[in-house]
Amino acid sequence: MNNNNYSDAESAPAPAAPASTVSTSGVLENLALEMLREQRANRRWRIFFRFAVFAVILVAVWAAFDITGSPKQVAGRHTALIEIDGEIDVNSSTGSVSSILPALNNAFVDAGSVGIILRMNSPGGSPVQAGIVNDEINRLRKLHPKKPVYVVVEDMCASGCYYIAAAADRIYVNQASIVGSIGVLMSSFGFTGLMEKLGVERRMLTAGENKGFLDPFTVQTSKQKQFTLGLLTEIHQQFITAVRNGRGKRLKETPDMFSGLFWTGSRAIQLGLADGLGTVDSVARDVLKAEDIIDYTAHEGLSDRVLKKFGAAAGEGAVNALGAAALKLR
């Protein structure tokens, strides 16, 4: 009897909890979950703001210590070095007038510099930038006749780069350097045939019959083509004159010399486009007799380079999208 009662009691279901207890438990559970979510969100925001503050501090420190220009030390007798690297262009860090001219002036006026070496490695670029630098070198050489200017070519000194180099007293190369490309080009493209196939009509209004003749969506007339070729020929002749004036009797002109072709450093020496083999160290040591080298190159700060590259990329994209022609010494 007792065993049966015990078994019945054991197997009987537990009494249900009061409704108020269940309701309170659910509210507390939801409240706890909500508090947990809020804590996690607050923690994420705190991490975000900490990183943001750290980034602002980092940028401030970067701007404070990001120094434009090379850390030139005051020294006695030395060789002044200026690097011209990359495209000769207004946006170039070491190949623009705004970078090269101040460095040239600083190197010439420094009483300790016995001569200037231009270490050059460029495929060319803007004829305007190259022409201004060529003129400035000639001007400074006249003001400081006892300070020679030597060019040392590394991989390439072509077109606009050679336009600058021609103003130097001597040009030194490696036997495998690429030298020359004395010519001018203007590049663009046309979409007129494609537009006709697609049935697209170009609507451009101008005041002046030739105002939009470089527009890629407009057919180029023979008159406009001849005008452009005349423009290129005039600039090409300016380039040739600068080379002849700079190289003088050393130049052994051939029919191909000013055709836009380029040569190895060894062949350039034979043609009188260069004077000999040499490096920055060998010219400083053996020619200038001043082994101590100080870099006068106006190096841009990292922040300036990043901003300039971003702006140049955006500008180039816009120019390409609009189809503007680009005039280059290449």
Describe the secondary structure blueprint for this structure:
Elements: H1 2-11, H2 19-65, E1 78-85, H3 97-109, E2 113-122, H4 127-143, E3 149-158, H5 160-165, E4 170-173, E5 178-180, E6 185-187, H6 192-198, H7 222-247, E7 262-264, H8 265-271, E8 276-277, H9 280-287, E9 293-295, H10 302-322, E10 326-328
Parallel strand pairs: 1-2, 1-9, 2-3, 3-4, 3-5, 4-8
Antiparallel strand pairs: 5-7, 6-10
Helix pairs in contact: 3-4
Précis, in short:
With 330 residues, the chain is an alpha/beta fold. It is built from 10 helices and 10 strands.
Give an overview of the whole structure:
By secondary structure, the chain is of the alpha/beta class. The protein has a single domain (78-328), classed as 2-enoyl-CoA Hydratase, Chain A, domain 1. 49% of the residues lie in helices and 15% in strands. The chain is built from ten helices and ten strands. The protein has helices spanning 2-11, 19-65, 97-109, 127-143, 160-165, 192-198, 222-247, 265-271, 280-287, 302-322; strands at residues 78-85, 113-122, 149-158, 170-173, 178-180, 185-187, 262-264, 276-277, 293-295, 326-328. The strands form two sheets. Strands 1, 2, 3, 4, 5, 7, 8 and 9 form an eight-stranded mixed beta sheet that branches. Strands 6-10 form a two-stranded antiparallel ribbon. Helix 3 links the parallel strand 1 (78-85) and strand 2 (113-122). Helix 3 packs parallel to helix 4 (127-143). The protein starts with a helix and ends with a strand.
